[in-house]
Amino acid sequence: MGLFWRVLIILPLFFAYVNGEHFTYPSRHPGKAELAGFKGPDSLATDGGGFFSGPLVVDNDATATTGNQGGTTEVTVGKPEDDTLVASLDNDGIRYANLIEAATTFKGSWELFLENGGVSAMHLILLPKINQALVFDATVWKISKIKLPGPPCRHVEGTNEEDCFAHSVLMDIETGKLRPLRLNYDTWCSSGGLDINGRLVSTGGFNNGSDTVRILDLCDTCDWKEYPGALANGRWYATQVTLGDGKFMVFGGRDFPTYEFVPPEGKKNTHQDVVDFNFLVETHDPVENNLYPFVYLSTDGNIFIFANNRSVILNPKTHKIIHEFPVLPNGARNYPASGSACLLPIILKPNEDRSVIPAEILICGGAPHNAFEKADLQRPKVFLPGSCDCARLDFTKRDSKWNIFNMPSARLLGDMAVLPTGDVLIVNGAKTGSAGWDDAREPNLNPVLYKFQTDGTSPKFTVLNPSNIPRMYHSSFAVLPDAKVLIAGSNTNPGYLDDALFPTEVRVEKFSPHYLDPNLAMFRQEIIAEKSDNKLKYGQKFTVQIRGSGVIDQQKLQVTIYSPPFVTHGICMNQRLIQLGILEFNKDVTPNTNNIVLQAPMNGNIAQPGYYMLFVNYNGVPCLRSIWIQILP
């Protein structure tokens, strides 16, 4: 093909962007509080949103100017190695060369997915295979924005009342269709995780739900199965973690500085199954600051636990603390100071044989130790500034110390989503105050991108385009198969209120991160699911087939697997992203189709058994859609 025709074919790709009018979200749901925005289950199934197509271009100082949908694409080019040429755009015009890497100044865009999600998303998790988001709040309110489809209604314990509102829904992440689910035992401030078969196992909650275990199977007609009394201690504001053999442990909860293993379905723990955990006594401030501890399985099978400002390694077999790390200064990090945390990507090499695989935690934000006292107990309320710092720690090394650095703005009540590329999206939350009812101010509307780096260079943050919906206390997120991020929740009120300073929020958004710049669409590969392995054993060699245009540079390929977290109160239980080692890259098995040969993680301490989303990223741009894989013991 002549050079002239190549230009004509390829050039339009670099100028593709979406034009549109600025979309303004409705101010609030009209009408009475108990029925505001409720039109019935059938209408909710089709409620949709407009596209926020004129994003704001925000610099690191968080100022904003109007911009277009696409970012500025910068392409680094090299000398062609063969006669296959790819057009690249720079400030000088068009050049022809093999594309090596691409970057973008695009800072994301927001889309209103649902005007009414039915339930305010205090808890949120993406369920595998069925691609539905499970959302639930608390039965204590006796109200939501969506009713149960019919009898029986829930009998309100200790009263003659009946509650006919749904407090849990399944949300189709493509269509927005909602299916109400029935709950009898209160899930307020509960915990959870996916089992090996992709079912949600939920623990604890409030009042009659505090010692309950719940299970939701994956089917079109499945509803909650509830097992009250299954836990020996009440677990309100507790943290659940999955172990390398697929079993669960649940740590803490208000008034119970203990932990226990979650019993098998239908079984009950006794007090002999409870282990006292003095670390949670020692880290308890007068206003707590150690609820919802950050708990992660280490790659060596031990458990990393962070509460308030201290962190330890626990051996779950001997029940002994085997190491304590230095104190993290500058305030408290757990509820109600409510910073956020995530496990950074676990990077595996081809033919992995290291005895210890590094694992790092990232903790950002939080509040002074007395922030809750000032905002909740003092009158007039005083809203102390939140923390601006982040800290990293490799907890597989006993001599590790905290690496502390500043993020662009203060944040508490935020969430940390690990993106398919391994970068971290810090989103939601406030700049001042504390967790609690009406205890925070100054919504932090701008997400921040933390660029994950392992080379010891300085941390890099980028302030992204803002939403115009405050997401305060009780906000949540889910990373989606198309690499967008579902954003939901926010309720600073003890009930469903539309006339509060920060009303109870049932609108649901989707955020398109930087890598979804339309000018980078050419790099998005398609995974051929029917030609890719999706049931794996530990250490197994397996193949993923991809299709895309142009010649693929293996050095720019990245394959990651992601375990969907149970998200609530700024904590993302069991969120885990693992970069797999690439063993082989077989080009052009058919035209424009390539096979990637990979190695599954070596054991369950690296990747717990169960379901993961597998992403193929090229030039830092995720594939069109991930596939679900299941790792079996």
TrEMBL record:
Gene3D superfamilies with a match to the protein in the record: Galactose oxidase/kelch, beta-propeller (2.130.10.80), Immunoglobulins (2.60.40.10)
- Domain Galactose oxidase-like Early set as annotated: residue spans: 532-631
Which Pfam families does the protein's record reference?
A: Glyoxal_oxid_N (PF07250), GO-like_E_set (PF09118)
Q: Does the keyword Signal apply?
A: yes
Glyoxal oxidase N-terminal domain location: 122-515
Q: Which SUPFAM superfamilies match?
A: E set domains (SSF81296), Galactose oxidase, central domain (SSF50965)
The leader peptide range reads 1-20
InterPro entries (UniProt xref):
Gal_Oxase/kelch_b-propeller (IPR011043), Gal_Oxidase_central_sf (IPR037293), Glyoxal_oxidase_N (IPR009880), GO-like_E_set (IPR015202), Ig-like_fold (IPR013783), Ig_E-set (IPR014756)
UniProt keywords (A-Z) are: Signal
Q: Does the keyword Signal apply?
A: yes
Q: What is this protein called?
A: Galactose oxidase-like Early set domain-containing protein
The source organism is Gossypium mustelinum
